[in-house]
Design brief:
This protein is α/β, with parallel strands linked by helices. Helices cover 41% and strands 13% of the residues. It has an eight-stranded parallel sheet, covered by helices on one side.
Length: 316
């Protein structure tokens, strides 16, 4: 188990991504994935109110609704649910009125009294940051939200949020959710991790498997013939360095009897301030690799090898 920042949220160190629920996973499949994850010890689920509004025929909130139906059906113990605000078609931005309305809508869809971890999904340049900070503080004070977190915010804006919260006597965020993985390291390691260390924040990274590239499934920049909606996003990483990273993951994983995906998640878990990478599964048979990614411990030498093969030049 791992603790998220200064909170009392102790979770399995791998978060199940809910972005596929209502998109590439229908209700029955979503339930099967959640069942498999929970049965294996998983207890941390990540979603957003906007998932999956991008699918034709959807309007947003489908993932939350399916998770809520699963919670009501299974009544699992001690499951931590994180969700987000600012991108739902009906609740865009971080104005105080919008944040309150969106949180109430998420609570209804999830069927819970309190949201465990509530993210500002994206920064909102049209709303004064003071207003957004106060809106989240009010949600915590009123018991709608247990803890606040930030996703896709720059380091400067995170620092400004914290300063405003401190000045107003409000609760500080406990987690950050950046895009971070073996093929996308620069900004997080240069600017976000130092900030997280300074303020005792935990990272809960998304795109942990680089849209599936770090599963080893995509070894060509040509996505033609791939049926997955993520194929094009994953294939762009099939550069000489990207393929060298996958080869190293495969070699290290074989030494542990682990998959490429599990090994990539284990590397991410070993990075400073990372509490629980997010990874999704569109089929229940994919869940064991995710669970293994939450338990596999790499050696110091193996982490160093992966660091080397994925090395980048700071500031470049």
């Amino acid at each position: 188990m791992t603790r998220i920042g200064r909170s009392d949220l102790d979770v399995f160190p791998l978060s199940l991504g809910g972005n596929v629920f209502g998109w590439t996973a229908d209700r029955d499949t979503s339930f099967a994935v959640l069942d498999a994850f929970h049965a294996a010890g998983g207890d941390f689920v990540d979603t957003a109110d906007s998932y999956s509004a991008w699918k034709p025929g959807n309007s947003g909130g489908e993932s939350e609704t399916l998770i809520g139906e699963w919670l009501a059906s299974r009544k699992p113990r001690n499951v931590v649910v994180a969700t987000k605000v600012s991108r739902h078609p009906e609740f865009r931005g971080l104005s105080a009125k919008n944040v309150r309305a969106a949180a109430e809508a998420s609570l209804k869809r999830l069927g819970v009294d309190t949201i465990d971890l509530y993210y500002a999904h994206y920064d909102d340049p049209d709303t004064p940051l003071e207003e957004a900070v106060a809106a989240f503080a009010d949600l915590e004070n009123d018991g709608l939200v247990r803890y606040t977190a930030l996703s896709n915010f720059s380091a400067d804006r995170i620092r400004s949020w914290i300063s405003l919260a401190q000045a107003g006597g409000g609760a500080l965020p406990v987690a950050l959710q950046p895009h971070y993985n073996l093929v996308h390291r620069n900004d997080v390691e240069e600017t976000i991790i130092p900030l997280a260390e300074e303020f005792d924040l935990s990272l809960v990274p998304y795109y942990s498997l680089a849209s599936g590239f770090l599963t080893g499934k995509y070894r060509s920049t040509d996505a033609a013939g791939q049926s997955s909606p993520r194929a094009e996003g994953a294939a762009k990483y099939a550069t000489p360095q990207g393929l060298a990273i996958v080869d190293a993951l495969e070699r290290i994983g074989d030494a542990h009897g682990a998959s490429i995906a599990s090994t990539a998640l284990a590397w991410l878990r070993a990075q400073p301030t990372v509490a629980a990478p997010i990874a999704s599964a569109s089929r229940p048979e994919q869940v064991p690799d995710l669970i293994a990614g939450g338990t596999l411990e790499l050696t110091v030498d193996e982490i160093a090898e992966l660091d080397r093969v994925s090395a980048w030049t700071p500031g470049a």
